[in-house]
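FW: tagging you since you asked about this chain on Friday. Here's the raw sequence from the shared folder, copied in full. Didn't touch anything.
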Amino acid sequence: MNLVIDVINVKKTFKLSAKQQKVNNTKDKLKVAVNGLSFKAYEGEVYGLLGSNGAGKTTTLRMISTLINPDEGRIRIAGFDTLDEPLEIRKIIGFLTSDLKLEEFFTPNYLFDFYSELHKIPEEISKERKKTLFEKFEITSFAHIKVGELSTGMRQKASLAISLVHDPSIIIFDEPTNGLDILTAKIVTDYLIEMKAAGKTIVLSTHIFSLVERVCDRVGIIVDGKLVLEGNLKDITKEKPLEDVFFDLYLENTEVLVWKTF
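HL: got it, structure written out here
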């Protein structure tokens, strides 16, 4: 298989405000969000980053998507370096995260057209793609309603469609089913499987075990910014539920981390 995403020993540290220090019950002024993380994703596979909230999943995906730069390490996407060639990478990836908000004064229809023009997609191709995606994610009925008037689930579906406006070959999804009802979540999950079958490379972060079990070929379990286990899903789980594997690793690694602080 062709190597598409290569994350090489990346580290990212953030400064904590006084408020953040209080919320996190710490006097430390710095937070290491991602610490020496490495993994690879190949053409036509779904790679899942599984971890709890605050584990470093979103930070990792934002670095892959060129929204922020690593403090240390390198990331290469389809041969392009995120530090040296971010514009080339943005042309070939689709990125969805709940941290990125659609402009509330515009409609899904307008925003889809706007981003199509931004990516220089021919009008006829854009129209056909919009029709397909809006029908797939059941957006057509609210396509002309302002984003600010939509429910959380509807906004998520609109964001998903718009992130795919340029038919990217590499898809980065941060909690793709977050905020969706069970029926819409199934639509999204089924579409992930369709995109995988079409040969697209997908990296997703999640804390939902069933999503990983259904769509992922390989999984990396991340605890406190570190990859503690990685491999083929079947090899990792063997005869044990993924949920049990995760919590065993989480307790083992957090116990070590707590011990080291004393």
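FW: The chain has a mean pLDDT of 87.
HL: agreed, and The chain has ten helices and ten strands.
FW: great, closing this out.
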